[in-house]
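Entry 14. Structure prediction run on the chain below.
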Amino acid sequence: MYEVRVQAQFYAAHRVRMSNRLLEPIHDHDFQVEAVIRGPTLNEDGVLVDFRTVQRALRRIVEPLSDSDLSTAPLLAGLNPSSENLARKLFEALSREIGPQVSLAGIYVREAPGCVAGYCGPDKT
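Output returned:
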């Protein structure tokens, strides 16, 4: 199985509601996003996917989040702006953007050193 990873980053704030129903104070992060593409075969050029294609798509998706408050971002409308929800919504958006011919395996969001949340889609291989 081949794997390609593409990364992007953005700076944003959020205010997460915790299980005790208390809101965290609004705080910011330098979010790091990693998209993981997997597949069993390479194309005629010997690549799984063009890095630049996925990188441009990922940047288009995260650019509106830059310097924003994720608590009010349209991408997360109606959701608690946790890194887990952010990973799922980014996965869904990137899947639409790159199309079904590319097997997006997962999106991982790092909000702080050692703190990573991810969302993995169904195995399409």
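The mean pLDDT is 92.
Filed with the rest of this week's runs.
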